[in-house]
Every structure is written in C-alpha cells, then in structure tokens.
Amino acid sequence: MAPDTVLFDLDSTLCRSTQDDQRIHAQAFARAGVEPFCTPEDVRTVASTITDADTDHEFFRQVFERAAARAGAGSIDAEALARATIALRDPTAVEWRPGAQAALDRARKHANVGLVTNGTRTTQRAKLDTLGIADAFETIVYAADRTEPKPSPAPFETALAEIGASADSALYVGNDYRADVIGAKRAGLTACWIPSERDLDAPADPDHMPDYRFDSPDELTTVL
C-alpha cells in the first residue's frame, strides 16, 4: 500500500553541496591556526553522533572536540575551528542530488509531503531557497530549532502531528542510517534509506532495518 505521507531529509537526500569538502577542511584549520588532526571523513563520522546541538556553532564545536578526542590530539581550539568552518561554508552552494527532484515531484502528486532536517532554520532555509522548494512542503521541522534532533522520534512526530498523519501510513526518506533510518523506525514510520556515495554501510541492527534501500532517489517512484 502506497504511503499517504512522505517526509524527506534534506542534506545528501534532496540536495548536495557543491563546495569542496577537502578544501574547506584544510582552510578551516589554517584559518583557526590549528594543526590538522583529522580528515573530512573523520568529521562526517563524528558528526553523525552529535544529538544535542541547537546551533551550527555548537554542532561544529562538538564535532571537532570529539574528533580530537578520537585522534588523541589533546587540547585543541574547537571554538576557532567551528567559527572558521561556518565562515567558509556557503549554505546556498547546493544542487539537487541526481534523481531527487523527480522523487519530490512524484511524492507531491501522490501524498502529503514534509521535511524533517537536523539543521537550523537559517542554514536549511537558504538551501531550500536555492533549490526553489521553500514552499514545497506541508510542514518543515528544523530539529535544531524546535525538537531534539534525529534519531530522536520527536521531529518525526512533530511533522506528522502538523500534517495530521499517522506514522503507520507515512514513509521517511533519508541518506543517513543512524539519523534517518533509526529515527524513523523509532517513530513508527516506514523507512527508505538512500545512502550517498559518502555514507557508511549500515550496521547490522535487526530492530532498525530500512524497509527500502535504493541507490538513487528516483527509485522512490516505484513505491509511490
């Protein structure tokens, strides 16, 4: 049975950055005056474990603190690294992930649609404006501003309540196994996992397995 509600993640699901991660990473360390102790891949791995940051600065501060701890780097200036990273990152430098526009268009024709993202309103709204989809959703939950972030069930439950939909007839679409699949399953939704080329393989967790796994967002049209 096709879902009557489809909730989407934003980053790396509907859109992807056009900036060079390696370049931003190197420039952030240079600007902060900190000797590099981790790679962009290390940052992405640690970023998925941050669950209590309510601003972009707090998010990146925690990311660099945890990355330094994992690397045994000792005391580092995480505040300076967070400031430098935010200054260098351009939230308007995004493009559609291939197949994502078709998936969103299809969902809008056949279901209620919403967006559930862990980012802040300011940062994520800039991306939506660039893509021209700020008004494409019945509801948008910016978890960093309103609820506990994914994988908490709170942002999913908030979105469903605002649409007036039930979890058992809703589908969540995301690229991040921990935040998106585990979060959606905790909230009782059907989960569609569409990992990007940068996403790690999902750990074996029989309690939180995706109901669908696709290589590209446009494959979502097979279930709508």
Automatic annotation (TrEMBL):
InterPro entries: HAD-like_hydrolase, HAD-like_sf, HAD-SF_hydro_IA, HAD_2, HAD_sf. Keywords: Hydrolase, Magnesium. Residues 199-224 are annotated as: Disordered. Its cofactor is Mg(2+). One of its GO terms (biological process) is N-acetylneuraminate biosynthetic process. Belongs to the HAD-like hydrolase superfamily. This is HAD superfamily hydrolase. It comes from Halapricum desulfuricans.
